[in-house]
């Protein structure tokens, strides 16, 4: 075999990609910086692992008799989620029509309204909860308000994007026969976007059920308050029971809502 | 003029579709009415309006002196710590997620129940409340940022591994089969076929999860797991509205900037 043949057998060298190395260096730098800043040490965690595991073992033996106490709170939590999903998604419905650029053509209005929406979307649910607890006081109303704003943020983003992708044909037809803006929304836009709206509202409901179970921890009503009480009193068996019932309810609701959304989109 | 022409013909409706429509409406309205019963709507503080005004006033007249004062307790260092918690948490979870993702991915070469069991474990991790996890870690490593980072790291696995496993499921079998056909070992397949194909999805999903983690990290402080949440809850309890304002502004700016950066990077990746 000649030298050139041997060269032919070699695979061509990969191009040297500088950016890959820049990313790797940035990642390592970020890791070092964040470990330093947070003073996290895994050895310390593994040294105390038995304490962590002990809580977990206790949670794994749920206190079944506690289910009777937990379920009414869970029902309240679900009610909170339902109310806030309904109010929040109705608000989002109107707002999305206002910020969709194929319905409102004034760029200044949509721009300002979108800016407000993006600001609302940045605030995490628990922060909203703690602000509303400070505003209206401890109780389910604070939770409902927080989840309403949160639902609004989730639905509005998905929904206005759906509105902007609708087929312009029916709208143009309505305008061509002399329909006004309301006619346009009623007969051309609505039939196209209603399935999406219901689907997004159901999706927001799934998130809300999950979020509402911990809102009580900061005093915003629902089962989270019991979560806090049992944790504060080191009754981890009862905490385990709460987590178990919440998990089961979340599973059921996720399943039902996924099936409903699939049926809608078909 | 002939008015009969102006009427549109009625929409074709079968009894079944009408029943489904009305049934759906009645059930939904019944559920909504049921959910309004039994909730204590009273107990709203009479000062609610006043406090809302104070918070908005605080947002427009923030306490600028809190932004940076070199004590390590100021806004900038707390936000930086929040980012560090989110980064470390995401890093840990990205590493843990890879094996979980291969477990839960429903590929052709696997028994059905293996991937199903993986998916159930991931659902359980996802619905295990982050705050409870943070409290468990606080018991183990003490209050502060490490507990937050570890809690985020474990909690994020639930979602991240699910996203990874979806990426694995949609992988093209071709490269892996080509390597097997050329006599490559399983290790070769993983290094030369699976990983290069999977990398963009892993990076993009991890960046997305980082966005979510930044939001979570700003909340974990409410239970004492480090970050900006703790000064916020203190300011809310002591009614220092101008400080609440500056902290909220800080969180909003941080989240917007991070979303923007990671969005730009993800757009480049795809």
Automatic annotation (TrEMBL), chain B:
<dbReference type="GO" id="GO:0030313">
    <property type="term" value="C:cell envelope"/>
</dbReference>
<feature type="domain" description="ABC transmembrane type-1">
    <location>
        <begin position="79"/>
        <end position="262"/>
    </location>
</feature>
<dbReference type="InterPro" id="IPR000515">
    <property type="entry name" value="MetI-like"/>
</dbReference>
<dbReference type="GO" id="GO:0015416">
    <property type="term" value="F:ABC-type phosphonate transporter activity"/>
</dbReference>
<feature type="transmembrane region" description="Helical">
    <location>
        <begin position="244"/>
        <end position="265"/>
    </location>
</feature>
<dbReference type="InterPro" id="IPR035906">
    <property type="entry name" value="MetI-like_sf"/>
</dbReference>
<protein>
    <submittedName>
        <fullName>Phosphate ABC transporter permease</fullName>
    </submittedName>
</protein>
<dbReference type="InterPro" id="IPR005769">
    <property type="entry name" value="PhnE/PtxC"/>
</dbReference>
<feature type="transmembrane region" description="Helical">
    <location>
        <begin position="219"/>
        <end position="238"/>
    </location>
</feature>
<feature type="transmembrane region" description="Helical">
    <location>
        <begin position="79"/>
        <end position="105"/>
    </location>
</feature>
<keyword id="KW-0472">Membrane</keyword>
<dbReference type="GO" id="GO:0005886">
    <property type="term" value="C:plasma membrane"/>
</dbReference>
<keyword id="KW-1133">Transmembrane helix</keyword>
<dbReference type="Pfam" id="PF00528">
    <property type="entry name" value="BPD_transp_1"/>
</dbReference>
<keyword id="KW-0812">Transmembrane</keyword>
<comment type="similarity">
    <text>Belongs to the binding-protein-dependent transport system permease family.</text>
</comment>
<feature type="transmembrane region" description="Helical">
    <location>
        <begin position="20"/>
        <end position="41"/>
    </location>
</feature>
<keyword id="KW-0813">Transport</keyword>
């Amino acid at each position: 075999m000649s030298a050139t043949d041997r060269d032919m057998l070699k695979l061509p060298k990969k191009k040297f990609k500088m950016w890959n190395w820049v990313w790797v260096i940035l990642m390592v730098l970020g890791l070092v910086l964040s470990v330093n800043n947070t003073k996290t040490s895994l050895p310390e965690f593994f040294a105390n692992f038995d304490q962590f595991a002990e809580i977990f073992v206790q949670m794994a033996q749920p206190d079944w008799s506690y289910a009777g106490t937990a379920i009414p709170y869970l029902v309240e939590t679900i009610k909170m989620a339902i109310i806030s999903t309904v109010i929040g998604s109705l608000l989002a419905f109107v707002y999305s029509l206002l910020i969709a650029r194929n319905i409102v053509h004034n760029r200044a209005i949509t721009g300002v309204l979108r800016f407000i929406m993006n600001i609302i979307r940045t605030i995490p649910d628990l922060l909203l909860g703690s602000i509303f607890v400070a505003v209206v006081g401890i109780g389910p109303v604070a939770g409902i308000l927080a989840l309403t704003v949160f639902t609004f943020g989730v639905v509005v983003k998905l929904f206005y994007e759906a509105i902007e992708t609708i087929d312009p044909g029916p709208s143009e037809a309505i305008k061509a026969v002399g329909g006004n803006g309301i006619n346009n929304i009623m007969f051309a836009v609505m039939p196209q976007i209603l399935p999406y709206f219901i689907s997004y509202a159901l999706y927001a409901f799934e998130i809300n059920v999950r979020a509402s179970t911990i809102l009580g921890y900061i005093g915003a009503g629902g089962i989270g308050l019991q979560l806090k009480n049992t944790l504060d009193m080191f009754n981890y068996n009862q905490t385990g029971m709460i987590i178990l019932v919440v998990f089961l309810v979340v599973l059921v609701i996720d399943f039902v809502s996924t099936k409903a959304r699939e049926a809608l989109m078909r | 003029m002939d008015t009969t022409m102006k009427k549109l013909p009625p929409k074709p409706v079968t009894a079944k579709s009408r029943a489904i429509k009305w049934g759906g409406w009645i059930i939904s309205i019944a559920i909504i009415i049921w959910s309004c019963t039994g909730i204590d709507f009273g107990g709203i503080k009479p000062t609610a309006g006043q406090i809302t005004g104070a918070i908005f006033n605080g947002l427009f007249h923030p306490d600028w002196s809190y932004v940076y004062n070199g004590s390590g307790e100021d806004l900038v260092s707390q936000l930086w710590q929040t980012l560090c918690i989110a980064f470390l948490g995401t890093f840990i979870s990205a590493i843990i997620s890879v094996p979980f993702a291969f477990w839960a991915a429903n590929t052709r070469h696997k028994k059905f129940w293996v991937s199903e069991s993986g998916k159930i474990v991931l659902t359980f991790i996802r619905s295990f409340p982050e705050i409870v996890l943070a409290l468990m870690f606080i018991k183990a490593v003490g209050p502060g940022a490490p507990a937050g980072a570890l809690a985020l790291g474990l909690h994020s696995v639930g979602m991240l591994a699910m996203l990874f496993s979806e990426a694995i499921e949609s992988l093209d079998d071709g490269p892996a089969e080509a390597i097997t056909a050329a006599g490559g070992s399983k290790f070769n397949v993983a290094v030369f076929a699976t990983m290069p194909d999977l990398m963009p999805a892993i990076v993009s999903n991890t960046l997305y999860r980082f966005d979510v983690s930044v939001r979570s990290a700003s909340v974990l402080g409410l239970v004492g797991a480090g970050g900006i949440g703790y000064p916020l809850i203190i300011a809310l309890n002591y009614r220092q509205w101008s400080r609440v304002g500056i902290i909220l502004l800080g969180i909003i700016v941080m989240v917007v900037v991070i979303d923007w950066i990671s969005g730009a990077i993800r757009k480049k990746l795809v």
